[in-house]
Design a protein that fits this description.
Strands 1, 2, 3, 4, 5 and 6 form a six-stranded antiparallel beta sheet that branches. This protein is 25% helix and 21% strand. By secondary structure, the chain is α+β, with helices and mostly antiparallel strands. Helix 1 runs antiparallel to helix 5. It has one domain. The chain contains five helices and six strands.
Length: 164
C-alpha cells in the first residue's frame, strides 16, 4: 500500500502514538497468553528466500517487511494477549481495554510488536524484550508500517488474522 493510499482513519490511529509516548511494555508480558492462530500454529515465518505465496497476504507482507531487519527472515513468532484483552480477542469485536493488550513476539529478533489501545483506538509500538522502546520514525519497525498492515481485511480494530 502506498503512502497516498493511507486513509484518514489510519492517520487518526497514528495520531494516538504521540499521546502514548510514555507507554511502556508491561513487566508481565511474559505471562500473557500465547493464543493459537494460523500464524502461531506455523511457529515461525519463513525465511527471506522462501516462497510465502501460499500464506495469507498479511503474513506475506510481514515476511517481506522483516527480511529488511533480519536477512534470515522474522523467524519464530508467538501471538501474546493480556488477560484483560482475552475476551475481546476471542470475540474479535475490537473492544479492547486501554493499555498494552496484544503483541507479536518475534523472538529470533528479540522484539515485540505491541498494540496498545487508547479510548478504543489501536496504537502501535515496538519494544526490545527488556522493555526498551525502539519504535522507529520509518521503516519496518515504525508505527506507520504497523498501521498499514493492520488495516488489512483480516483485521478488526488492530487485531489481525484468524483464530484457530
Amino acid at each position: 500500500m502506498s503512502r497516498t493510499a493511507f486513509t484518514a482513519s489510519t492517520l487518526f490511529l497514528l495520531s494516538g502514538a504521540a499521546s502514548l509516548a510514555a507507554a511502556t511494555l508491561p513487566d508481565n508480558w511474559r505471562e500473557w497468553t500465547a493464543v493459537q492462530t494460523p500464524l502461531a500454529k506455523i511457529g515461525a515465518l519463513p525465511g527471506c528466500d522462501a516462497d510465502a505465496s501460499s500464506l495469507p497476504g498479511i503474513y506475506q507482507r510481514t515476511v517481506g517487511l522483516y527480511c529488511g531487519v533480519r536477512p534470515e527472515g522474522p523467524g519464530t513468532v508467538r501471538v501474546l494477549v493480556s488477560d484483560a484483552a482475552l475476551p475481546a480477542y476471542h470475540f474479535r469485536n475490537g473492544d479492547f481495554p486501554n493499555g498494552a493488550q496484544t503483541a507479536l513476539h518475534l523472538s529470533d529478533l528479540g522484539v515485540l510488536m505491541v498494540t496498545t489501545y487508547e479510548n478504543g483506538a489501536p496504537v502501535y509500538q515496538v519494544f526490545k524484550e527488556d522493555g526498551e522502546e525502539i519504535t522507529a520514525d520509518d521503516g519496518p519497525l515504525s508505527a506507520e508500517v504497523c498501521a498499514q498492515c493492520h488495516i488489512d481485511a483480516s483485521c478488526v480494530n488492530g487485531q489481525c488474522g484468524a483464530l484457530e
